[in-house]
Write a structure and sequence with these properties.
CATH architecture of the largest domain in chain B: Orthogonal Bundle
Radius of gyration of chain A: 19 Å
Number of domains of chain B: 3
Radius of gyration of chain B: 22 Å
Largest sheet of chain B: 4 strands, mixed
Number of strands of chain B: 14
Number of strands of chain A: 0
Structural class of chain B: alpha+beta
CATH class of the largest domain in chain B: Mainly Alpha
Shape of chain B: globular
Strand content of chain A: under 5%
Number of domains of chain A: 1
Oligomer: heterodimer
Order of helices and strands of chain A: HHHHHHHHHHH
């Protein structure tokens, strides 16, 4: 019985993130539009876009290899798995023993590696530009992300997300400088990883400035739908990660009454909405930076995370 | 400063002497065009304020090149070759320009290890006009940009040949939709000069009123669009509101948002609406209320300033050589404005300043626009206050044979810079030959110089700060 419940709840988590990801994207777009005094597209527009793309034919470049066709599925699957491992409304899910934060980063890293390959596969100049910029950003974001993991793991005593989340929710945490630094670093990495302003612009139409969009420029139809859904999932992943590590309130424990699960789900949706709103406000108030400023921006994240880790060796109370 | 206009027919020596003076920098090239069998060159002596039109009768369809000694003429020579089959002898670049043939276009070579080419356009991802940009880049750094234009060639000059004055005026107003008032204005000035008539005072003031409204609307949209290319969409949205307000006021005053075809040879086609003055004052009040806070937002957003300051610098010597007008020239130290030199009514009776900066970067071009918005607001105020009564149109002599032939030149400051229209009427009062030269002819080449040393991702920002016209250039 317990196995069935566990299995059901893990499935519920997987479905929940899949269904919520486009909604978060739509919500951020809507808030941004309202901040610009525009009406904005309806909240459900991303779903409609996905359905539209799924119905369309796929147009492939003549010289696209099999890799190009397979990669959207790979990227989507990897991202979906990664986001399913992050505790959202309940910790200690069926797969939580695999929910090692380092594993999540590795899964995302592989997805990005394949997407960068796909960008170069068709041999167009934009794909190449996009891939090279994406990899430049990744080569700085990934070390920063690992340092963040170390900083938090040293405090929580585990790299397993359920344990980390439970620890952060306990009274043992207290106010720690290193956690503050790690939070700022994590936000910077999340902004860069999700191709948001100021690193990239998800709404841009300028071929020469795009990063993520340039890389996936050759995709169409269901392939593009999968990649867009994967991008939405990735945004949800980072927002959920911030929520589960730095705002773990309300996440229901492994064995809990249905009411606690409901509370967990409601708290999760509230947290996602709040963070999505903050993201929209942040994006509206800042211009995109020059491509070559991105290393400085991400370098700051790396340094903050490094500092957070080092402070732990200075004194355990940090 | 009074401007004198002289027409001279020259032989080879006179032509070459003028080319030498152009190359030496004592003259500025206003335009170079063909009126077969002649080629003509409009020259401005900025020190004296004199404009001279040199006419050279081609022999065997050939004339001595201007472009080899004075590069700003290269594209004009190529266009003359495409449109009129007159050859510039000794020209260094004989590739077609406006004419697109089946033969592949040869882009200039840039060789070196690690250099790669990026081809952009002619169809772009946004809703903008078509043009092809061929970049040679070393990683992210741009080594060379070469433009390929002519995709929106409509054959305006060809359609105008033999057209009645009314039709020609309509065609002129459709050269570049965002500058339709300026083109209509310049064409009307040229036609009136050719016919030796003058528009009544009220029409003159109404023309300037429309020209300033057009300038306001375009500057608002440009300021917002430049910020949007740095992904700062807040400015874009707010400036979009101001632009929309301006266009709606234009509609309330003149019955049409872009005020197309309202300026006609002899005056204006319709008077300002009875409540137009009140609508305009309302617009001025609203802009003066909102615009200062937008300027502050632009100036105080560090992330935005980081993108615009020192990006896409146009060197003053290039701006000088190319005789660049508008915000491109004025942001690079050129104190020029067609409203001042050669100057035309009613601006000689109005007080306004011509803002000039020397930085030459994207930021300077934004600031020139901001200052010009302020000047235009003051000009609208002055025009409304001094709007004379009386008729709005004089009869244009049409048909009837004798004495209608003549030549006229009109230069008007559009929002981009000076628009030049030269018109020759036949004895029936029809357009025998009309030449329209957009300010972009001398700004596009400067964009090629401005992007050097910048990174690929900054090109959209540089390009938007120029906002050159494709339609006006391609004709």
């Amino acid at each position: 019985m317990a196995v069935i419940t566990d299995f059901a709840q893990q499935s519920a988590q997987m479905l929940l993130v899949l269904l919520m990801a486009p909604l978060l994207t739509g919500f951020v777009r809507k808030v941004k539009a309202r901040l610009l005094s525009r009406q904005g597209p309806p909240l459900l527009q991303p779903y409609r876009d996905l359905i539209r793309l799924l119905r369309k034919d796929v147009v492939l470049a003549n010289n696209a290899s099999w890799l190009f066709r397979v990669i959207p599925y790979l990227v989507f699957a990897a991202t979906w798995v990664a986001v399913s491992l992050v505790p959202t409304f309940r910790s200690g899910l069926l797969f939580s023993w695999t929910a090692d934060l380092i594993a999540i980063i590795a899964v995302l890293g592989s997805a990005r590696f394949f997407l960068a390959l796909a960008g170069m596969d068709a041999g167009t100049s934009f794909g190449g530009i996009g891939s090279s910029r994406e990899v430049m950003i990744a080569s700085l974001a990934e070390p920063a992300m690992l340092m963040i993991v170390f900083a938090i793991a040293l405090i929580a005593g585990s790299t397993q997300l359920s344990t980390m989340s439970a620890f952060m929710n306990s009274a043992d945490v207290g106010l720690r400088v290193s956690l503050g630094l790690a939070l700022i670093a994590l936000i910077i990495v999340a902004v860069a990883e999700n191709a948001r302003i100021p690193v990239d612009n998800p709404a841009t139409h300028l071929e020469l400035t795009m990063v993520h969009e340039a890389m996936v420029l050759e995709y169409s139809g269901r392939h593009l739908a999968l990649i867009e859904l994967a991008a939405s999932l990735k945004l949800l992943l980072y927002v959920s990660l911030i929520a589960c590590l730095f705002a773990p309130w309300g996440i229901s424990p492994a064995i809990a009454a249905p009411t606690l699960l409901l509370v967990g789900a409601a708290a999760y949706i509230g947290k996602i909405a709040a963070l999505g709103f903050l993201l929209a406000v942040f994006e509206t108030s800042i211009a995109k930076m020059r491509v070559f400023r991105v290393p400085e921006f991400l370098g700051a994240a790396l340094m903050l995370a490094l500092l957070a880790t080092l402070l732990r060796f200075v004194s355990r109370s940090f | 400063m009074t401007t004198t206009l002289s027409h001279t027919s020259v032989n080879v020596d006179g032509w070459c002497e003028a080319v030498d003076r152009l190359a030496g920098g004592s003259l500025t090239l206003l335009s170079l065009w063909a009126d077969p069998p002649d080629v003509k060159m409009a020259l401005l002596d900025e020190a004296k304020g004199d404009i001279s039109i040199l006419s050279y009768a081609c022999r065997n369809g050939q004339y001595p090149t201007v472009g080899v000694k004075h590069p700003p003429a290269i594209r004009l020579e190529r266009a003359i070759r495409d449109l009129h089959r007159l050859e510039a002898i000794g020209a260094s670049d004989t590739r077609p320009w406006l004419l697109h043939t089946a033969a592949p276009y040869e882009f200039l070579a840039a060789e070196g290890e690690a250099l790669h080419q990026i081809a952009v356009g002619p169809v772009h991802a946004g809703i903008i006009e078509p043009g092809h940009f061929r970049f040679t880049a070393n990683g992210e750094y741009l080594v060379r940009l070469e433009q390929r234009l002519g995709y929106v060639h409509k054959g305006i000059e060809g359609l105008m040949t033999g057209a009645t004055l009314d039709t020609a005026a309509k065609l002129a107003a459709r050269t570049s939709g965002d500058s339709t008032v300026a083109y209509g204005f310049a064409f009307a000035l040229a036609a009136e000069a050719a016919l030796k008539i003058a528009a009544p005072p009220r029409a003159v003031y109404l023309r300037a009123l429309m020209a300033e409204l057009e300038r306001l609307a375009n500057h608002f949209s440009d300021i917002g669009a430049i910020c949007n290319d740095a992904s700062f969409s807040l400015m874009h949205a707010q400036c979009g509101i101001l632009r929309e307000l301006t266009l709606r006021t234009a509609e309330a005053c003149f019955g049409q948002r872009l005020m197309m075809d309202i300026i006609v040879p002899g005056g204006v086609a319709r008077d300002i609406a009875a409540d137009g003055a009140a609508a305009l004052r309302g617009l001025l009040a609203e802009v003066r209320r909102v615009f200062p806070s937008l300027i502050e937002l632009y100036d105080n957003t560090a992330s935005l300033q980081d993108r615009t300051v020192t990006t896409g610098i146009v060197k003053p010597e290039y701006a000088r050589q190319f005789g660049a007008g508008g915000f491109v020239g004025r942001a690079s130290g050129r104190n020029v404005d067609a409203r001042r030199l050669p100057g035309y009514a009613p601006y000689d009776a109005l007080a306004f300043e011509v803002p000039v900066l020397t930085a030459g970067d994207v930021n300077a071009r934004v600031w020139i626009r901001i200052r010009e918005v302020e000047q235009s607001l003051s000009l609208v105020d002055q025009l409304l206050g001094a709007l004379p009564d009386g008729s709005i149109r004089v009869d244009v002599p049409s048909r009837g044979g004798e004495g209608l032939s003549g030549e006229g030149l009109g230069i008007v400051e559009a929002f981009r810079g000076d628009v030049l229209v030269w018109l020759r009427l036949d004895d029936q009062g029809r357009a025998a030959r009309c030449h329209l030269r957009d300010a972009s002819w001398f700004q596009w080449p400067l964009l090629e110089t401005a992007v050097e040393g910048n990174i690929v991702a900054d090109f959209p920002l540089c390009n938007k700060s120029f906002n050159c016209s494709y339609a006006g250039h391609d004709l």
